[in-house]
Amino acid sequence: MASSPDWGEVASALRGATRVCLACHEKPDGDAVGSLLALSLVLRRLGAETYPSWSAASVEAVAPYAWLPGKDHLVQVSDMPPDVPVFVAVDCGAAERLGELEEIARRAPCLINIDHHPGNDDFGHLNVVVPAASSTAELVASLAEALGVELDRDIATCLYVGVVTDTGRFQYANSSPHTLRLAASLLEHGVPAPVIAQELFESAPFGFLKLVGRLLERATLYEEERFIYSWLQRSDLDETGVTPQETDGLIDAIRSTRAADVAALFKQQLDGSYRVSLRSKGPSVGVIARARGGGGHELASGFTAPNIEGTAEEIRALLARSAPKDDSRDPRADHSDDSRDPRADRSDSRDPPADHSESSTAL
Q1: The pLDDT value given to residue 246
Q2: Nearest-5° Cα angle at 51, 50 to 54
Q3: Separation of alpha carbons 309 and 294, rounded Å
Q4: Would you give the DSSP letter of residue 258?
Q5: Which CATH topology does 206-340 take?
Q6: Residue 52 Rama label (left phi>0; alpha psi -120 to 50; beta)
Q7: What SS3 state is found at 280?
Q8: Residue 37 in contact with residue 52, Cβ under 8 Å?
Q9: Which of 199, 286, 288, 351 has the smallest count of CB within 10 Å of its CB?
């Protein structure tokens, strides 16, 4: 994010608000939860009464976010006031991702939409959508500055969680110099980065290792299309004792192979359908997801499918048709001309783990 967004109207609306509802997308990931709680804490510093929430049968910050500052302010959907003057949606690419809270959001005299997802439909009365931002947390940090709120350890911790998760621990192309400078400034407020890394990335239950074993055993590779996929059934969770919330990072186990540029993980839902998470090292998977009613980023997206093999074959066929007719997809090839390599210049690509549709009831 080269420059700060224009927060003028948004800042004015929030400074004058005494009661504010806030919501992130349903089945939230680290950026959604971190941005939500950080902004709630910022507005409370301004004296506002806040109601942070998301659409779920039970709204609570569960592992690996159960320790986040501000979680005690979370409100159940049934307890959200129906008549607040200001409603802020964070990290929602579309209003429908607010789930049960969309109706309350639509009724608010002032609906503010803060997001970084490409394709956001500007559903708010006031919209600050910046696809160049690494995360919505990066935008909330900018908004806090515009509001004149100095960050403290709690706010900075929530923001850091949002940034570190949506940048894949700063390894994705969206980790710009500005993002790294922001992370450094957050650490100056006492953010416990080693503790956060352990909580988010190194605290899996033992059953998770068993689940990874099943995932790897089932992995199928289409060498010519450089496409790999695997799947999980609901019974896998029951037998290993892993909760749906603990499966977020599983796709990294198969996407790490140098033999593939695109990875897909199929997770069976309660209704028998499959939530498909897509990750890419170059070819766009956002277009694949959007064509099937899903969404996300160009290099990280997801959608729902009725089956595994048929859908995997469709993805394989699409990749085969769109693949270049040379060796530019092979990271081991010597490319004297980087323009042939879809991964050579991704300055405008965003690769955070943007599509996390898992919840307490969905795998």
Answers
A1: 85
A2: 140
A3: 19
A4: T
A5: Diaminopimelate Epimerase; Chain A, domain 1 (3.10.310)
A6: beta
A7: strand
A8: yes
A9: 199
Q: Are 51 and 17 in contact (CB under 8 A)?
A: no
283 touches 301 (CB < 8 A): no
CA distance readout (Å), 362 to 245, 269, 282, 283 = 9, 5, 28, 28
Question: Quick count: other Cβ atoms within 10 Å of Cβ 142?
Answer: 21
**Whose CA is closest to 90, among 50, 121, 47, 128?**
128
pLDDT at 294: 87
Is the N-terminal amide bond of 64 cis, ω within 30° of 0? yes
Distance of CA 308 to the CA centre of its chain: 23
Q: Is the pTM of this model over 0.85?
A: no
Residue 102 confidence (pLDDT) above 80: yes
- 163: Cα separation from own chain's centroid: 10
Q: Which two tokens stand for residue 142?
A: 């900018």
**pLDDT value for 295:** 82
CATH number assigned to the domain covering 8-201: 3.90.1640.10
Residues of each domain in the chain carrying CATH 3.10.310.30: 206-340
DSSP per-residue letters across 55-66: SSSS----TTST
Q: Amino acid identity, residue 287?
A: V
Q: Are 234 and 268 in contact (CB under 8 A)?
A: yes
Residue spans in the chain of domains classed CATH 3.90.1640.10: 8-201
**Tokens linked to 270:** 């309660």
Do 206 and 191 touch, CB atoms closer than 8 A? no
